Amino acid sequence: GAAPAIVSAQPAIRWRCASSFPRALDTIYGGAEVFAKFVSDATGGRFQISVHPGGELMPAFGVVDGVQAGTVECAHTCAYYFFGKDDTFAIGTAIPFGLNSRQLTAWYYEGNGLKLFREFYDAYNIVNFPCGNSGAQMGGWYRKEIKSPADLQGLKFRVGGFAGKVMSKLGAVPQMIPGGEIYQALERGTIDAVEWVGPYDDEKLGFQRVAPFYYYPGWWEGGAQIDLYVNKAAFNALPNEYKAIVTAAASHAHTNMQAMYDVRNPQALKRLVAGGTKLEAFPRSVMDAAFRASMELYKELNDTNPRWKKIYEDYAAFRRDANLWFRFTEARFDSYMQAARL
Amino acid sequence: GAAPAIVSAQPAIRWRCASSFPRALDTIYGGAEVFAKFVSDATGGRFQISVHPGGELMPAFGVVDGVQAGTVECAHTCAYYFFGKDDTFAIGTAIPFGLNSRQLTAWYYEGNGLKLFREFYDAYNIVNFPCGNSGAQMGGWYRKEIKSPADLQGLKFRVGGFAGKVMSKLGAVPQMIPGGEIYQALERGTIDAVEWVGPYDDEKLGFQRVAPFYYYPGWWEGGAQIDLYVNKAAFNALPNEYKAIVTAAASHAHTNMQAMYDVRNPQALKRLVAGGTKLEAFPRSVMDAAFRASMELYKELNDTNPRWKKIYEDYAAFRRDANLWFRFTEARFDSYMQAARL
Which of A90, B136, B227, B317 could form a disulfide with A80 if both were Cys (CB 3.0 to 4.6 A apart)? Predict the structure, then answer.
């Protein structure tokens, strides 16, 4: 039961969180709001974090600079947007043929992931926390069918940053187009294909109206993690209680975002298919070509970037063991259930 | 930045948490310790929860009674141990051919799971929180091969509670034996087979020395959740800040336990196989017979237990949609990775 009250002094703190996402993406943007609400609730409103959509405080892809400089105390973003600074960032979110959602979380929490990335981010004044995952993304919307690697030659494909390096090796032409302009580019044929996230988010952008073929899997994003980046000085200035609250609130938001996607995607998929979308699996030949190109890229990066090599080697060993284990009881259970008449 | 300190009064609170698990199971027992540590850290040590192994304060399977009566403020346990009170408890942990770990979390957090179970547990003075998951468990250790449903006839099988109902329908003879006595029973042939958890936990009990065949999947536990049960009056007496801290700390422990298993199981599996354990998949005929028996049981429970029916119908609809979605991009990505040369 409750003992007599103890008087304690806790500081009132206000932080700003710069999101890289638009408010309309309630799943991915919402993760930062779930986080901020828990921090506020756990501190009786004494620690308030206001969440700002991409572009409001700084450009959506300027948030690493913002946190590094202390312009904002924290940001909610995807590490792989920043592969231009260092390819190592990409591992933090998803790399082609990488870990799935559950495996990536395990590597961060109980493997070496969090430890290694804390070291890496130190140079950017960042303390990172896993704060969301989309699960395995879809392979995107295509105006024409993809029957072999030859169909990727010259394909103008809107695809997120780092994966474009593999697409280029396959002969495709990666395009960087902001979210708000993709639909029109696809409708006019300025681009041939686009990948975004999965059924729930994609449906909102309306791609199903201008591209009939919806491919899977998104082999470049088997489980894309979203991160909370906290400015190191701001974090270190927190009382220990608040540090623990930030950590647990980020964990809650991390798991809750995956749950949001897992609840919303099935309903959106059913609506899309009912509306005429054609679900297609990438042919084996395309998967194999992409796998080879990815492993070639990783070898190049191992040879040229010691920061990449240090993290990738640990990640790759974990990936090998995780898939060894998952192929038995997890895969057998899931495949039986997926084929069952439920 | 930090504003001037505000004086606030927070009560000092001490709770006891009765675990149903022995301390030696560091993964599953450890989940309660992770939870308690976060609560302590987030409150500067003002809210202390001591964790007690099964049997220390009350019998391992007496913890629902203990929380209901307020003998302890909280417990860390598996709901399905209590199916003798009401079969509905089983859904809270795992039922044969139920949801996998990620799906169950999604159903609890963002589907109707938590809401429905909060209503159900109200009669037991319990406020529940997901607080761990083992992932898909293995199908257990067998002295002889299982080649068809006929091999289950008369099989003396040590199996956790509710799944025994399906085993009985299949002709097996379920045995309830405490953890500490299983090894000897299997060695002497008093029982023919035993299921426990998975490689990491099973290896500690040494079953590999007395039964050569290790089957998968554990179709009765596709993702077994562990719960934190809090006495309703104790929870309601907490300040709102502490309620939020308990919730976020439970979420952190929930996700962290799955990560613990996912990191430890692959290493244990490799050791077991290197030591001669024979990994075998249950034949399709056994899976199909078990699936039919399970669905028959659920129909009987729907017809006789309105509390079961209310929760199971929501759960089953979620299971259908979740597997519809998971069979595309998640399954295709995972199966490619599991077959790849990594």
Answer: A90
Query: Which of B35, B225, B255, B294 would you mutate first to test chain A, the one with the most A CBs within 10 A?
Result: B255
B337: nearest CB among A222, A263, A337:
A222
DSSP A25: -
- Number of folded domains in chain B? 1
Residue A55 CB contacts under 8 Å (≥ 6 apart), including other chains: none
Task: Compute the distance between CA of residue A183 and CA of residue A126 in angstroms, rounded to an integer.
Answer: 34
Task: Read off the pLDDT of each residue in A97-101 and give the average, rounded to a whole number.
Answer: 98
Instruction: Give the separation between CA B154 and CA B174, rounded to whole angstroms.
Output: 9
Cβ atoms within 10 A of the Cβ of B274, count? 8
Distance CA A201, CA A178 (A): 15
CATH number of the CATH domain containing A21: 3.40.190.170
- Residue B176 confidence (pLDDT) above 90: no
Residue A49's domain spans which residues?
13-135+223-264
Interface pTM (ipTM) of the complex? 0.96
List chain B residues with CB under 8 Å of A332: 216-217, 281
Instruction: Check whether A323 has a pLDDT greater than 60.
Output: yes
Q: Residue B303 domain-assigned?
A: no
CA distance A70 to A92: 21
Quick check: helix, strand or coil at residue B288?
Answer: helix
Is A1 a residue whose pLDDT tops 60? Answer: no
Residue A125 CB contacts under 8 Å (≥ 6 apart), including other chains: A67, A68, A69, A70, A231, A232, A233
Signed CA dihedral, A259, A105, A120, B338: sign only? negative
Residue A3 above 90 pLDDT?
no
**If DSSP codes are grouped into helix, strand and coil, which group holds residue B295?**
helix
Closest CA to A312 of A299, A327, A324: A299
Is B102 within 8 Å of A321 when comparing Cβ atoms? Answer: no
Confidence (pLDDT) at A5: 47
pLDDT band at A4 (very low <50, low <70, confident <90, very high): very low
Residue at A101 is within a domain: yes
Residue the block writes with tokens 């952190």: B252
Residue B143 lies in a domain: no
